[in-house]
TrEMBL record:
The keyword Signal applies. This is PEP-CTERM sorting domain-containing protein. InterPro entries: Ice-binding_C. It comes from the Bacteria. Residues 1-19 form the signal peptide. Keywords: Signal.
């Protein structure tokens, strides 16, 4: 192989292997991998892996009566820890809403991503968190929907557009991020990740849920400089390949 071409290839390899830790996708092919669903209040219903419903793989299906429903993970190191170790990160989940019934009528609910820090809780609340409304769950729209959000800068101190905070409450009971915490300080100490229909600050009635989730993912966002260097390297390889082909011809 041309020596210059070899050097370009080697220069590109570290860019692909030095991604920030934490990238992972749970398809439920290998079990729950730390994901749990809350239990029903009346003992009826529950959660389990459904091998007939998955979006390209088995799915975690939850059917129960409760005020809301949550899927959480505290033990999988790919989903908890210091997210500021990544410059940016994308969270994704596939959801299939079979039914959401309130007083025997189909209704919709929002699905929230919440990143929770239990180690630095105050104000009498169990944890501090930042959260984002991913979208609406609606049984009238069958099939799978992909919901996601990207944090472009994990070092941001203020809440990015669309994000809310939890850890303190105002006089009306509405939650907010405490003054001594920042967006980045919560991201630096995530003890639990949750996908939940409980939107902080909202009240709910007893509801029947039948929802499946699949392909839960967390993906580091490549830094622009790395992407540019990789593109330049690949372009250089292409030019050399064309020159070699021309010389051969």
């Amino acid at each position: 192989m041309n020596k210059t071409l070899t050097m370009l290839l080697l220069a590109c390899v570290p860019l692909a292997t030095h991604a920030a830790p934490g990238g992972s996708t749970v398809t439920f092919d290998n079990g729950l991998e730390g994901w749990e669903a809350m239990q029903p209040l009346d003992g009826n219903g529950g959660s389990g892996i459904d091998h007939s419903l998955g979006n390209g793989a088995p799915a975690l299906r939850t059917a129960m009566e409760n005020f809301g429903i949550s899927w959480t993970n505290k033990t999988n190191a790919s989903f908890v820890g210091d997210y500021t170790a990544m410059k940016g990160v994308t969270f994704g989940i596939d959801v299939s809403t079979q039914s959401i019934r309130y007083f025997n009528q189909e209704v919709t609910r929002n699905l929230v991503l919440e990143l929770r820090d239990y180690d630095n809780a105050s104000n009498g609340l169990p944890y501090t968190s930042v959260w984002y409304n991913l979208g609406t769950l609606d049984a009238s729209k069958p099939g799978w929907q992909h919901l996601s959000v990207t944090i472009g800068d994990t070092s941001a101190t203020g809440l990015p557009s669309g994000w809310g905070g939890y850890g303190a409450e105002d006089a009306s009971g509405m939650p907010y991020l405490p003054a001594d915490r920042t967006f980045a300080s919560v991201l630096a100490s995530v003890d639990e990740i949750a996908f939940t229909t409980y939107v902080p600050g909202q009240m709910y009635g007893f509801t029947d849920y039948d929802i499946a989730i699949d392909n839960i993912s967390v993906s580091p966002v490549p830094e622009p400089a790395q992407g540019g260097m990789l593109a330049a390297g690949l372009a250089g390889i292409a030019v050399l390949a064309r020159r070699r082909a021309a010389r051969t011809a």
